[in-house]
Amino acid sequence: MKKPLVVAVVGPTASGKTALAIEIAKKFGGEIVSADSMQIYKKMQIATAKPTEYELSQVKHHLIGYVGCDEEYSVAMYKNDAVRTIDEIISEGKLPVVCGGTGLYIDTLIKNTTFLEYEKNEIRSELEKLTDEKGVEFVLSKLREIDPETAARLHKNDRKRIIRALEVYETTGMTISDQEKFSHNEESKYDWCVIGLTCENRQVLYERINHRVDIMLEQGLLDEARDFFNNSCSATAKQAIGYKELKPYLDGVVTLNEAVEKLKMETRRYAKRQLTWFRRNKDIHWLCIDNTDKKVLTDMSVEIINKHLGD
Length: 311
Known about the structure:
Elements: E1 5-10, H1 17-28, E2 30-34, H2 53-58, E3 61-62, H3 75-91, E4 95-99, H4 103-111, E5 113-114, H5 123-134, H6 136-146, H7 148-153, H8 159-172, H9 176-182, E6 184-185, E7 191-198, H10 202-219, H11 221-229, H12 247-250, H13 256-278, E8 285-288, H14 294-310
Parallel strand pairs: 1-4, 1-7, 2-3, 2-4, 7-8
Antiparallel strand pairs: 5-6
């Protein structure tokens, strides 16, 4: 039997994924499944660039704003939620359109990765406290001692995954690297058509990012950041770009201009990491957003999908 089609729209932040995914869903009678590790959280509206009320009214969206900011959430949990949602959309005779820039979420769905489960305990809070007291570099050095392979591929500021790698080892006696050897990828039950958005001129993307940050500030990002830090949030939610970069300003340590420039720089760096991640997937159909309007991108996407259906 032919596998059901699932379309994915991927790419860096500010590339126009949401707008394109909505147009594709409208053309093919589909619904959107978010693959954004920060848009899953409630509140956090502006910083995570959640779809606007108007965009949400155009097409039904799933997996947006359904996890409390104080809750821990894993990629394994996301996979379960996303697969269940995709199956429900297919059962209704509609096209699932997965949209997001979290590469690990996307890859987990496409590769149908199975994860080993482990019991959670108090070790995480102890590691969080240790990191607060000693710094990320200190806990990264501890990880290098037990799992140099994982430590080498984690960014030095990736607090969340460094802590998780130590937690898994302390809890199970097995390193993340060893766990990944026991986890496995099964053939997907879906027929994936993945469309990626990119820029030939990187400056075009950077200008879009800078403009988006300016718009976010106009929309009230500073007030949202104040509320964020006044509430209890999980270690995962705290990784959201848009809050931690503004905290030095809220604390009176730097000027607003310095904090905003830091936010723009970190967002540009994140976009670069996203592009690097997605370019490892040789099956992505890349579309260039340089001087290309939404209608042209939509027409090109429809052509790609129709050709995929005909193959």
